Amino acid sequence: MKAIATVALLVSSSVVPFAAQAQQSHPKAGKKRPPLSESAFQSQVLQKLSQMQTEIEDLRGQMAEKDAQIAALKRSSESSSGAQAQTAAQVDALATSTAQTSAGVSGLQTSVAAVRQQTSEVKNDVQQVAQEQVAIKKNVDEPVSIHYKGVTITPGGFLAGESIWRQRALNADVYTNFNGTPYGGAGEAHTSEWVPSARATRPSVLITGKVPFGTLSGFFEGDFLSAGSTSNNLQSNSYTLRVRQAWGQAAFGRYKFTGGQMWTLLSESKKAADPGQEALPLIFDGNLHVGYTYVRQPGFRFQAALSPKTTLAVALEASQYQFSASNASPNFFFGNAGAAPGLNNPGITYTNQVAPDVVVKAAFDPGYGHYEIGGVVRLFRDRYYPAGTTAANAQNDTRVGGGFVASARFPISKLDLGLHLVAGDGTGRYGASILPDVTVRPDGTLSPLRNAQGLLSLEYHATKKLDLFGYAGTEYVQRTFYRSATGTLVGYAPPSANNTGCNTEAVPTGSTGYLPGTGTCLGATRDLVQGSVGWVYRFYSGPAGKLQYGAAYSYLSRSGWVGTGGAPTATNNLVYTSFRYFLP
Predict the structure, then answer these.
(1) C-alpha distances in angstroms, 249 versus 29, 234, 261, 302, 316?
(2) Any signal peptide, and if so, which residues (predicted)?
(3) Is the overall model pTM greater than 0.90, yes or no?
(4) 318 assigned to some structural domain
């Protein structure tokens, strides 16, 4: 409307001058034009207004078009700004999404790693469960022990079918009395013997149970290398069961206390100083091997693990004397024959022990081999009678003996090398040959004998089934003698001993067939030497037990001290076979 008013004002302002001009103008050539009439004038004005109206409409249209273009441009600008803003927002959102995606990927990777770890753990758990199931099934189908109340009972041992051939007869089973190898003067030095036997059969049982302070254990082991009054080889070979080991043990923390019959602490062990860990030679003789130190006797043992690699043990063990003397006077005693009412064997002599043998040993397991060092203290006592024929001034006399022990066993590839040595005064009883450890003086007091014993062991584990072995051992006892008031040499192996018949075969002493000649021969032993080689092959070892067989050869030499007639010597060749079934 403002635009129309403006246009009307413009029209009126232009009509007035136009009318005045029309009245004042003169025609060319000097002629006057006649003035317009009012109607003509109005017509011209209306025509002019119409023309101006058209122009106004055109201008209005152009203005509307321009406004539309401006609006379009505005809208386009707004749209562009919005798009830019949207684009910026999208970029921001995309950046945020990218960061979130990166964080998500990182978290996903972590989750994947965790899942993999969990999967591995689950797999291990599954495998462990599977193994435990197999073990449980195996324990159910093939139990290694019997559970009774609060204890676990584990049977063990083996059944044996074995034999030994000796070039020189000893009338012994698969237990060789090495010091009894006959000199050439004995009839049996010229006859051999082959002895088959099942008496090495060895049943055992281990019983263990947990208690609040630790573990209680008990072990029994026996064999049939003993003889009753009716035992014989003619019909049934019914030999009696004897106790090899029977002990109980309490283990608490680093300490163990064991009481009962067991291998002496002087025996070489495989590890620490535990009963049952003895490093026994693989040979099949029930008396093991010359040079090996052992007795099985009642005792009490206390041991402490000072560290995982060091064990200290002390034992109080039964003490018996192995006695030998020539030309001794009947003015002393230190024991008597066993009392049958007291359940001892009346055919065997027993020592009146003054005190137990005290054995101390330190064992070291540094991770390469096993090493031991220790010693034993022994007390020898007798009652002697200085007057000889009367009890005047009769009294007891006690002598101290003992010695040291050292052992080493270490692997060299598949070979186990072992070295063992015991030496001292009065230690002969602890050797496999049971050489004498005490003799007597002319006044009736005892005198310990100097002893030594040693064993070299070579055990080659060729395969899991095959073991090869070799041993070389020796035992020695020193001659010890004294001159009596009458000039007689008294003691062990005096030079005056009669050895004149040691190498000359003697005739039988009776007609029963069981009395071969022995000849005149003291032949007090100086030393014994034995060398052995053999093998053991386990052709089955599994849930049904273990079946093995083997063979061995030994060469045995016995040398005596010089006496009247010289120094006697004896040799023996021994061949062993062994077939054993071990309980699983």
Answers:
(1) 166, 42, 11, 10, 15
(2) 1-22
(3) no
(4) yes
- Rounded to whole angstroms, how far apart are CA atoms 491 and 483? 9
The residue segments making up the domain with residue 256 are 142-582
Residues in the chain: 584
- Residue type (1 letter), 409: R
Instruction: Specify the DSSP element, H or E, that contains 42.
Output: helix 38-141
Q: How far apart are CA 52 and CA 556, in angstroms?
A: 157
250 near 274, Cβ under 8 Å? no
Q: What is the DSSP letter of 521?
A: -
In sequence order, what E strands does 134-231 have? 146-148, 151-166, 193-197, 202-211, 214-223
Find out whether 348 and 337 touch, Cβ atoms under 8 Å: yes
- CA dist 384 and 367 (Å) reads 52
81 belongs to a structural domain: no
How many domains would you assign to the chain? 1
Burial of 72 (0-12, 13-18, 19+ CB in 10 A): exposed
DSSP letter for each residue of 351-373: E--SS-EEEEEEEE--SSSEEEE
3 state DSSP class of 96: helix
Spell out a b/e string for 85-114, using b for 16 or more CB atoms within 10 Å of the CB, else e: eeeeeeeeeeeeeeeeeeeeeeeeeeeeee
CA 200 to chain centroid, in Å, comes to 28
Q: What is the CATH number of the domain that holds 269?
A: 2.40.160.10
Phi, psi of 176 (to 5 degrees): -95, 120
HSE value, Cβ hemisphere, 13 Å, CA-based, for 445: 12
Neighbours of 115 (CB within 10 A): 12
Does the CA dihedral 490-491-494-498 come out positive or negative? positive
Per-residue pLDDT of the chain (584 residues; tens, 9 = 90+): 444 444 444 444 444 444 444 444 444 444 445 555 656 666 775 777 677 777 777 777 777 777 677 666 666 656 555 556 565 566 565 556 556 656 655 765 676 677 677 767 767 777 887 787 776 676 666 667 888 899 999 999 999 999 999 999 999 999 999 999 999 999 999 999 999 999 999 999 999 999 999 999 999 999 999 998 888 888 888 899 999 999 999 999 999 999 999 999 999 999 999 999 999 999 999 999 999 999 999 999 999 999 999 999 999 999 999 999 999 999 999 999 999 999 999 989 999 999 999 999 999 999 999 999 999 999 999 999 999 889 999 999 999 999 999 999 999 999 999 999 999 999 999 999 999 999 999 999 999 999 999 999 999 999 999 999 999 999 999 999 999 999 999 999 999 999 999 999 999 999 999 999 998 999 999 999 999 999 999 999 999 999 999 999 999 999 999 999 999 999 999 999 999 999 99
In a domain, 115, yes or no: no
